[in-house]
């Protein structure tokens, strides 16, 4: 793991500890696990560092749903600028972060890069497993590998 990812992880763990139980560090770990699983299928199309940073910061500010993506981006930008992270990579990280959020995804544009698709699917994966959320989220998943994994997990749960 790169130094910036390690630094972001340490910073983020403290920030996520302040959140409601649904958006603490264990949520980031769940999203990261799925993102890394999906990244294996799309290595040639994915910047691993951008993906990891986007996952780490995607819900770092979560006082309310409507503002969480924009405010999380603000936190990420501040942190990454202090660390002298390249501006062009900050733009990729923050765009992926915004794309995990349904309002931004549909308002601005549909997902265009693999990192954006991976973070969206990874964040919604556990929701798609839930019987009450399955109908809403399953059809919106981008990647066939995510859909296969959801079906496998649902079959495990039902058996």
UniProtKB/TrEMBL annotation:
Query: What's this protein's name?
Result: HD domain-containing protein
Sections of the chain in a coiled coil: none
One Pfam family of this chain: HD
Query: Which InterPro entries does the entry link to?
Result: HD/PDEase_dom, HD_domain
* Gene3D superfamilies, per the entry: Hypothetical protein af1432
HD domain boundaries: 24-126
